[in-house]
Amino acid sequence: MRRSSTLNRRSFIKAAGGFVGGTAAAGGLLSLGPSMRARSQPKTPAPEPLIQPPEISSANGMLDTAIAAAPGQVQLGDRAFAGLLYNGAYVPPILRVRLGDTLRTTFRNNLTSGLDRPGYVGPICTGSGTASNLHFHGMSVSPQGNSDNVFVHVQPGETFEYRVSIPAAGRQGPGLFWYHPHAHGFVDDQILGGMSGALVVDGIDQLFPLLHGLPERFFLIKHVKFDDEHELVSINGQINPAVAMRPGEMQFWRIAHIGASDFYKFRVEGVPLYVVATDGHALSQPRKVTEFFIGPGERIDAIAVGPPPGEYPMRTISFQNEAWRPPEPERQLAVIHSSGLSPGASPEDEILRQRAVGSQWIDDVRAAPIARRRTLSYSRTADRKVFMIGGRVVDEARIDQTVKLGDTEEWTVVNTDQQYHSFHIHQTPFLVTEVGGAPWNDDSLRDTFSVPPATDRGPGMLKVVIPFTDPTIVGRFVYHCHAVDHEDKGMMGVIEVVT
Known about the structure:
Blueprint: H1 9-17, E1 55-57, E2 62-76, E3 79-86, E4 94-97, E5 102-109, E6 135-137, E7 159-165, E8 175-180, H2 187-193, E9 197-201, H3 204-207, E10 216-225, E11 231-235, E12 242-245, E13 250-257, E14 264-268, E15 273-278, E16 281-289, E17 291-294, E18 299-305, E19 310-317, E20 332-338, H4 348-352, H5 361-367, E21 372-380, E22 387-389, E23 401-404, E24 407-415, E25 421-425, E26 431-435, E27 438-439, E28 448-451, E29 460-468, E30 475-480, H6 484-488, E31 492-498
Parallel strand pairs: 1-4, 2-5, 4-9, 10-13, 12-20, 21-24, 23-31
Antiparallel strand pairs: 2-3, 5-7, 6-8, 8-9, 10-11, 13-18, 14-17, 14-19, 15-16, 15-18, 19-20, 21-22, 24-29, 25-28, 25-30, 26-27, 26-29, 30-31
């Protein structure tokens, strides 16, 4: 499905070229004009229509593009701030590829050292300045060489060419993914500044033919935090936009949290959602939900059905995240405008009758024998400056876990901290089997999942089954909390898959 507005590839490369060789002063990402007086989302007088991001699509088996990271001004609603941007855009283009394509990206780092500061944990990189790079989140591609290799750190003024071969067959399938920086120690500032975008592997409508021809709507969630800890949450770079629907109309909604560290409990009043995929992995059949929890890095693909005529808020629901702070506030993120004649019958029965075409990887994961069990313990120091896995911070020169190709393992993540964390592993998804000590019957694989906080009753817990069975992923990569401020402060480990 290729339904969003199209950006000419030359235009995107030209935008990148405008940054090559010239670097503006970063300014203060966290500085703002008038300070906000409440943590709740500011209201806009009249919502503007939701704008779909531009996109760049592959042609003849190749997506060839250039991305430059540089400081730039951002306007969100009536607020302006100094951001860190890809080709000058707070919401850069969606990159669209197909199975078997090659994604060739020339990445240029035009960031200054203005964000460098003491207190980062672990070996950041060689050289000075604000390092950066690209990670293709959720993709089952090689972690080596100039592919999805997060150990490559591109220094200011340097250029690096990524060449990611997307397997035509095997474990990588169609779905919604994203791209963002992953130079340890600098990730949080760069994603908060705006450096993240969506990546789509086309073909999910071959798994669910009902999706073919449906209007495709992206909801890319970002947030920015300010010096006084207030923040703005945007969808596609807009504050409280309006989403037009007709009663009974089916739309294909692609919801991605491509922000840095927030967790959201999410609800769309009056609009039923039928989830067909999580983190780029299809369910066996659509599942109806009225609300869902989404942490940084997580994605949900769903069919939305237009409600009766009227206005319906898309909002977050208050919940307790960090035990030492008040509950997270409610925020209205968008409003659904439904207008027109109501159809005679709801499409719900037709949606729920759908079954994914073909075999599902999740069935192989469920049936695989467990070769080894491991436990990861999440903890932090009292001043919240250091976050650890297994009592130590990351060292990118150290191998923390060695796994044999072909094995399937069970990992238990124990959260001793009284706040939400998450578990994300590169190159391969996993099956969630327990959350908080209770069985979790998932119908799809994940690559990122939220770990509940510790309480007076004991630590939070997540149990997952991870297949290390795809030969494409042999090599070194990482696992970590995807609240990337925690990752920057040490909550990451290095894994090597060996033959």
